Amino acid sequence: MMLIDELENQSVYILREAFNKFDKLVMLWSIGKDSTVLLWLARKAFFGRVPFPLLHVDTTYKIPSMIEYRDRLVREWELELIVAKNEEVLREGRTYPAGKATRVECCGQLKKDALGLALGKHHFTGVIVGVRRDEEPTRAKERYFSPRDKHMEWNVADQPPELWDQFKTDFEKGTHVRIHPLLHWTELNVWEYIERESIPVIPLYFADGKGQRYRSIGCAPCTFPVKSNARTVRDIVEELRASRIPERAGRAQDQESEDAFEKLRRDGYM
Q1: Which domain holds residue 216?
Q2: What is the pLDDT of residues 208-219, one digit of tens each?
Q3: Is the four-CA dihedral 38, 43, 47, 51 of positive or negative sign?
């Protein structure tokens, strides 16, 4: 098992490699624990500053405290933030909360399609994402540098080998590459690192007075808390060491159909 320092060093190496290879680079920031750890690593990799913009795909259905947390860190850490929305779908109300789409359809339109619009507008060719192999079976098939075609689609059967830290960063015009510096981390690693580095995270991750907390955070209508008495980062670390419950058990869209999440990811979802 890799030590925390080894995990950190590998992630910093991948971030610097991406910065060296891509002229138009952006980091997706969902405001959750993984992408915030990734943001912290980027600040370490580049000596306290983040030399590329952050992109937050805003569905407008996030829990309000998440947006407050986002805006506070943007001010305090002097970050460049781009907020992307699928304005047309929101305006027409073609969403799950409005009763005009399934959860999976809503995710595709408000997240995947909004991301596509932002990438097209800003012409980003490298997209840094905080996914991990252990989080979900489809993500276990990923590479550190993972190409997407001009439609943002992912061909899981045609991925470049990555041997001895040699990464394929070439791409065709009109396409982009997803970069995954946290791919080798586990959920437990993330929380151990948060504890060691004292990284600020959203209070929603900690148990409330009802014995519940969010383990994975997304849109309010589709994300539910899990039973837990973990009130501190140390409590969460100890809880995870004993837990066998899947991390995304509180994500309703994952339960809509057996292959729902894989279809979303093949089509360009994060």
Answers
A1: 203-254
A2: 989 999 998 989
A3: positive
